[in-house]
Structure formats: C-alpha cells, structure tokens
Amino acid sequence: MNKKAQIWYTDFMLGILVFVVVIFVYYEYAYSIDQNPADITSDIMMDAKSISSSLITQGSPADWNQSTVKIIGLTDGEQRIVQEKLDMFANMTYAQTRTKLRTPYEFYIQFEELNGSIIQINGKDGIGLAANDTDNAVSISRIVVYDSKLTNMVVQVWQ
Amino acid sequence: MAVRYRKGSGNNVSWSFFCLQKKGFFFTVDALLAASILLGGLIILSSNYISTQPTIHLNYLSQDIINCLDTLKINELNNSYVDGLIANGNITDTNNSILQQVGEFWAAEKFEIARMFMGNITEDILPDRYGFGMWISEDLIYQRDNPPPSSRSSARKLISGIEKKKPVKGFISKARANNFIKVGTEVISFSPEGAGWEGDFSNPGEVVIQKYFELPANINVTNSTFYVSLHMEDDGPDWQVININNGLCTINRDQIDFFGGEEGTFDIINIAGCIHNGTNKVTLRLRNPGYNGHIHPGMLIKVDYNINESTQTYNNTFSKRYYFDNLTSNEGSTHQSGAWASLPFYIPEDAVNISVSMRIAGKNIRNYTGSGTFSSWSGWKYMRDYDYILFVNGGSPFASSANPAANPVYSYNSSQISSKLVDGTNVVSVYFNNYGDSSWGGGHPQIYSDPINYPNNSSYVEVNYSLPQAVAPYGSIKITHFKEFGGSANWLKETSFKFPQQAIEMGDVFTHIVQQYSYIVDVRADTYTPPSHLVFTSPSSRAVPTTVFIPGSVLDLSSTANNYVRVSDRNYNEILPETSVEYSFYVPSFVGYRNVFATQNEAETDALSRLNQTVGVFVSAENLVVESSEMRDVPTMWGPAVMEVRVWH
C-alpha cells in the first residue's frame, strides 16, 4: 500500500509540475503574440541601417562638434573615418549619442580589422552599450577606411 | 522505459506483462508528454529573442567597397605586393587611389598586374561566402569565383581621365612670340592745302609747304612711295616741286605725270631710300601762274618697313597733337597770296572724356581793308571782313577776323569746340587772306608750324579722349593692311574687304581718297552693298581730307563678313583707282593650351604650328617661348571609364 501511495504521490507532483509549466508557457506565448519578433527585427534593422548610413556620412554640419552636432557622421564624406569625429563621438554621453542617432533602441559600435581583431577606441572595444546574448540585436557591417586600412564598422542595435 | 514484473519462482516463473505493463506504459507516456511540453516551452521562450550575427548587406557592400577603393591611396597600403609594383616601376604615382591605379593598369592593358593587384588588396575584404569582382568598362579586372551568384549587387563609378590604350598622363603646350618681325606700312597723308597764287612763269606765286613727321627709331624702312596728287602748273619752266629730307631726294615738275596735260596731277613715285626713321621733312613748292597751286586729296607717302617688335600693352587713353604743315604762300608778280590748310582728326564713336583744343598761329597776315568781294559759303562777302576764317566741321565759319594782327595767334579750348565735334572724321580748315578761288593777301602769309623745334608755338589740334577699354588685349599684334579700290576712275567707287579669321580686335579703318579734282565727297560704309551709312561728308567745298576715318561700329570683324566702303563726289569728279582702304586689326602673339599629347615634343610641335597658323601669315615670330605642362588626372583628357564592383552570395 505504501508503495502504491508513493507512486500516486509522484505522479501527482509530476502532474502539477507539468500543469504549471503549461500555464507558464501559455502566458509567455500569449505575450509573445503581442510583440511579434518579426516586427521587432524589422524596426531594429531599420534603425541599424539608418545609424550605419548616418555614421558613414560627414554628419551635419560637416565640421560638427559636440555642441553643434545635428547628425552624427564619422567620415570625410568619402568613406574615410575622421579620427577627431570618432573621438568626439566616443566622448559624448550615451544618452546624447542615442538622441542624435534618433533611435529608441540601444546601440553599440565596433571597428574590426579585416582579420576580425577589434580596434580599440579610446581604450574601449566599442562605443555605446553592448548587447547581452539574450537581447534582440541586429548588427550591420560597413566597410570604411580607418587609420589607412580597410576596416569593418559594425553597428549593433538591440533591445 | 519498459518495466517487467516477474511472478513465481524457478521454472514456474511466468512473465505477466498485462497489469504491470499497463501501469508502466501510462507512466512512461506521461513522462514523455511532460518532457515534450517542457521542451516546447523552452523552444517558444527562446524564439522570442533575436540575436543575429553581423549582417552584411550586398547593396551597402558594393557601394562601400567602391568608395573605399576610391579613397584609399597607394601610399597608405602596407602590402608587400604593392611595394614590389612600386619598386619595379609599375606604379609610378603613389598618390593614386586604388581605383585610379587599377584604371591606369587597365588603360595600359596590364591586365594581369591589375588582377593580382586587386586580388592582393581585397583578399580579406569579404568573408569567403561572398563573391566579388571588378570590371572597368565591361572588361573583367578581377573576380573571386566563389560562390556561384544567387543574389548580387553592384556599384559603379565614373573615372575620368583614363581610356583604354591611351596614356594616363599627357602634355599640353602653349607658345608665344616675345618678339616678332612685323612688316608694316605707315601712311603720311597730306590734306588739301595751298596756295601759290597766280604770278607768271618768271615770278610765279608759290606756296611752300613743309611737313615734318616722325618714324619710330626702331623700324627698318624698306620702301617708300609718294602718291602725288597736286594742282599745279603743267607748263613753263621746270622747278623742284618736292624736296625730301633737305635734298636727299628731289622731284621736279617734269618728273611728275600729268594726266593728259591738265593741271591736276596724280602720280605714284618711288622714293625708296628717301625716307628714314626719325624725323623726316618734306618740302613742297607749288606754283600755278594761271590759277593757284595746291594739294589735292590723295597726296600721301606710304612707308613700308619692318620692325622687331615686342609684345605690348595697349592703353585706353589717347592723346595726340595733330600739327598743321608749315605753309607759306609767297606772292608772285601779281602780288597775290593767301594761305589755307585743312586738317583732319579722328574721334572714335565710343570715346569718352573728349577734349579738343586748337591753336592757330598766323604770320605775315594782311589786314585787308579794300572793297573786294569773294564768293563765300553763302553768297558774296567783303574780303576785308574775313582775313581769317576758321571752319570746324561746318559749312559756315566757326571763327573769323576782320582785323587780324600781323602775326595772330588764335587759341580755342575744349569747351569752345566741343559742340562742333562729330564722331569719326573731323575737319578743321583755316584760311588767311583767301577763300575759294579768291585771295587778298600780300607778301608771305603763313600758317606757322614747327613741330620739331617749336611745337608749342605751332599750329595744331590737340585731341584727348579715353575709350571704355584698351584698344586691344595685351600681347596682341597690330597688323595693317591696304586695299586699293582698283578698276577705273569714276565719280563713285566702291570696294570691300574682310578681316582675317585670326583677328581678335578691330583696329582703325581709314579710306585714303585720291582725286585729281574734288568738290564735296561722301564716304559710306557698312556690311551691305551698296553701303548706306554715311560716315563722312565734306563740310565744305575742297574740305576733302586725304584720309577719312571709318567707325568700327559700321563694320564687322567676322572673317565671313564683307565690309563695303563707297566714295563718291557730288560734282562727279573722279575717284581714282588708287583710292585705298587701310584697315588695322589685332592678332594674338600667343596660342594657349589645347590638345593633350603623349609626348612633350608632340605638344610643343603642335603649339608652334598653331602659333604659326595664327601669326605666321602676318609676322615672322622671333624669340619663341614654348611652355609645356604635364597633365595627369585631367577629367577632360580621356574617358570617362565606368568602374564597377559587383558583390554576390
């Protein structure tokens, strides 16, 4: 009898567990229906494209500084990164840069050599906030000339 | 998982699977279901998070690559293969962008080098899963074959200054002549003036006219011709009519051809060697016992010369003093004398700030008090009221005097004269003790002028004006051409001329009227035939200057346009075929850059050839200077070529 009771108890506990999991999965699923991953990806992707395209330009005004900048651009207009602009960009606060880049998402900019090595900017691996593995993130890579080398500028936008 | 239960023992052991098997089966299914649900839940949860690897967009990629290749310079590359190309001379300009350098390889048909070059530089630019290639004007330069394209994008750039099989650099040249030997002609004209009145063969009245003129010291006179147009005695004893440079050359009456024995003569006499550079003096002695001796229109000296001239700057201000000839009317046996002279001067139609002043100096003027009369510009008048008469562009006197001093001086300032001035040819006529065919002087009345020794005491008209711009650009050469009307003598004659295509600016244009006898002459000119623009008409009888200015506004500089000049005499006096048009124009002494040549020698030869075509027919260019420039990256030189980067995956 004891054995039978034990068997029943284990089944019951397992059943409860399964029930709880199903309920949890149901609510998660229901929530995920409101936030379609495809829509999120599309928005983030658009912002990533927009930010990367902006950074490829000279910015506005062309000789912008931290007080005059309207649009952040990091190049001379011909695909070559201007170190002064990059430094100014790196030295702006994250909130400022996100405002100027006009994105509701988080971003992270890195420069990589063609062999994949990360190029340090002001002693850091990148500019902005890096995403965690579990965040929704889109990365776009653009080729620029930085420090007389062909370089990948990776723009990551995430939520 | 299957569970077996055993009943009994030993050989009686039997295996019953039914009850126990059923319970065990349910349990296992439950577990599997639960595991499936858990796994499904995990999958659903995990699907809500997106974390992508860096995305490379083909459109961005091709555009980025072509932009970067156009930006990155050879001297920025740290690439041993490129270093080798520099070392072996395949790359000559390290300031080239990669795109330019590939273009140069392509233009030079160094396709293998171009392929290796691009392969080296773009080796790591893309992950292996992407294909990449470059084309120039559809010629494949480099292609990374993998993978086969399923989706592709391309970006293009136009690169000017290169073209297949054309040199990427070239030479252009310009040439100028700092000095040139120019053949020119200077015209010294004698306007109608006189007179030697009456007398007889043994003691004729005689007018002595002394003309001084300067020729530049740096010219080399090659020939001189005297166009002699006089009214003088054709009979009786011979005398020296013309004396050039104090006896260097002389011409007697009998050496001059009289047309059919009439008193009006026209002859063309070679006086080579008689005229030299510097100051020249020509003395005329004109007699005519039966009437009066005077100069007719068409009396002039043409001096041909060559000159080694340098390029010069032309200014826009003009100041010139036109001197009267020194003229003395000596009485003869009939005690008649009277001096008169006409003097033309020119004011262009676009002249501004015009200032004209005048000084008339008379000597030995008679204050006639008799009762004689003369046929004037308006009926008969008393001679005593007009010992001095001055006309300025009009048929009635501008000034006159009934009681002149023996040596009067009359001065007129600009404000007094300005209202009488006209654009183009102006004529001033001065009469002392005579008018028309009447004279009432005595002794030796004189219109005094000695521009060499006493210029300020002389008789003259001083003209000042400025033009809106310089008459010609710096470095241009003034060329003067003559064209005689030709044909046969007629009271109305017309000719036409064209400016050459090399002319960049119009100079002065004159017509030199040649007549045996004259009355009132009209000159018309424009670009139609018959020309309708009246550019000159004699203000009064005999006031026909030898040289009449034709305004440039009625003419056309175009080499395709005909410019017509028509001269007519209202009294049907003949215009002689020797009447001519003198037209000046300016040609550049340099040619600028034009075509690009592969070698400097070709460019210089072209420049010199063009210079010769421009000025060679007019001048002999000396001290030629040719400047050449090496041209690179000149967008207009060749091309453009279309550079295309294609990317695919």
Quote the beta fraction of chain A. Answer: 15-25%
User: Outline of chain A, from the CA principal axes?
Assistant: elongated
Largest interface (CB within 8 Å) is between: A-B, 47 and 36 residues
Structural class of chain B: mainly beta
| Share of helical residues of chain A | 40-55%
Number of helices of chain B: 7
Radius of gyration of chain A: 24 Å
N-to-C span of chain A: 56 Å
Distance between the termini of chain B: 48 Å
Q: How would you characterize the largest beta sheet of chain B? A: 12 strands, antiparallel
Q: What is the chains' assembly state?
A: heterodimer
Kindly state the mean pLDDT of chain A as a whole number? 84
* SS strand fraction of chain B: 35-45%
Class from secondary-structure proportions of chain A: alpha+beta
Instruction: Please work out how many helical segments of chain A DSSP would assign.
Output: 4
Short description:
The complex is a heterodimer of chains A (159) and B (649). Chain A has 159 residues and is of the alpha+beta class. Helices cover 43% and strands 20% of the residues of chain A.
Question: What can you tell me about this protein's structure?
Answer:
The complex is a heterodimer of chains A (159) and B (649). Chain A has helices at residues 2-34, 37-56, 83-91, 94-100, and strands at residues 106-113, 118-119, 127-128, 137-146, 149-158. In chain A, a hairpin with a 2-residue loop joins β4 and β5 (149-158). The mean pLDDT of chain A is 84. Chain A has four helices and five strands, in the order ααααβββββ. The longest helix of chain A has 33 residues, at 2-34. In chain A, strands 1, 2, 3, 4 and 5 form a five-stranded antiparallel β-sheet that branches. Chain A folds into two domains: 1-34; 38-158, no CATH class. With 649 residues, chain B is mostly beta strands. Chain B folds into six domains: 5-47; 58-170 and 639-648, no CATH class; 181-312, Jelly Rolls, CATH 2.60.120.1200; 314-470, Sandwich (Jelly Rolls), CATH 2.60.120; 476-588, Satellite virus coat domain (Jelly Rolls); 590-628, no CATH class. In chain B, strands 6, 7, 9, 12, 14, 15, 18, 22, 23, 25, 38 and 39 form a twelve-stranded antiparallel β-sheet that branches. In chain B, strands 8, 10, 11, 13, 16, 17, 19, 24, 28 and 29 form a ten-stranded antiparallel β-sheet that branches. Chain B has a four-stranded antiparallel β-sheet with strand order 4-3-40-5. In chain B, α4 (98-107) packs antiparallel against α5 (111-121). Chain B is elongated. Mean pLDDT of chain B is 85; it is low at 1-21. The A-B interface holds A 11, 14-15, 17-18, 21-22, 24-25, 28-29, 32, 35, 37, 40-41, 44-45, 48-49, 52, 56, 78-80, 114-115, 131, 133-145, 148-150, 152, 154, 156 and B 27, 30-31, 33-34, 37-38, 40-41, 44-45, 47-57, 60-61, 64-65, 67-68, 70-72, 76-78, 124-125.
